[in-house]
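Cont'd.
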Amino acid sequence: MSTAQALDQWSWSDSIAAQTIDAALRAPMAVSTSMLGRTDVGFVPEWVNVFQQRIAELHGLRRDWDGRGSAAVRPDALFFAYSVLGQSMAPATVAPSVIPLGHGGVQMVWSSADADVEVEVVQPNEVIIYHLDKASGTEREWHAATEFSDLSTLLRAVFTR
Amino acid sequence: MPADPPRDAAGNIEPHNHAEILDAHHVIRHITPDDLCEEADTGITRVSSGAYSESSDVNGGMSVDIEEWVLAANLDALHYIRDPSYGATRLNVGALRKAGFKVGWDPLPHNPHHGAVWGIGNGSKRKRRVAKLATTIRKAMGED
């Protein structure tokens, strides 16, 4: 198995054990790439750093933070978004833009010339995934709660370098 | 004064099409730097569809200013955007209604020209429908 294949099948699960945003932000990241026959302690995909930084920014937004009546950003929605990424992203997948929404959830956006993928985390276990294939113009939107294999396949195919 | 908007038993404004907000009118959506997303292959920063989400209030719609009402009060169209880092987009009321959304009056104590767009809900499909109707008046800080 090549390094690229192994990294493509990499999954991130240990840090999901953290129960709060603060704990997740402080949690040490030890990723076992056992398929390569070694353990890379301290290896942190770039998207993890980018996402954690964004969580820290959004975590402090209070009710009506935008003057448009938006709810405070829900910590449980942020944390669930983090876990969705943990189940869906390869190490080299591009970090999403994270947009706070009026209901207190967040939207994660990946966009390129080929496709748009938008994942709305309304609250834990209530996720709506949107995909636009720009070549065909085909749109698809579906609900998900705990299973994100379709999203993972999409992100690894289109937004992984 | 415009006709009062309809309210439920608890006094919350109900989703409605206000008769005095004409199809020819426009509404202005405030855009914050937090509404921006980045294109992966070009690095271009644009307004995400998430910028067009409804508030969490009871019967909460998407918060907007009614441009023609603001102008009729001899105020600048962007009068209610006080943060210099914020931008704004303009949406035609008739186009919103034709797409199935309701546009009504939702006055606030500090903004009698405040309205709401109802029917967007959760998920991206309808947000993107709204986004397609929007034109930029002023870019938010960081927007390309």
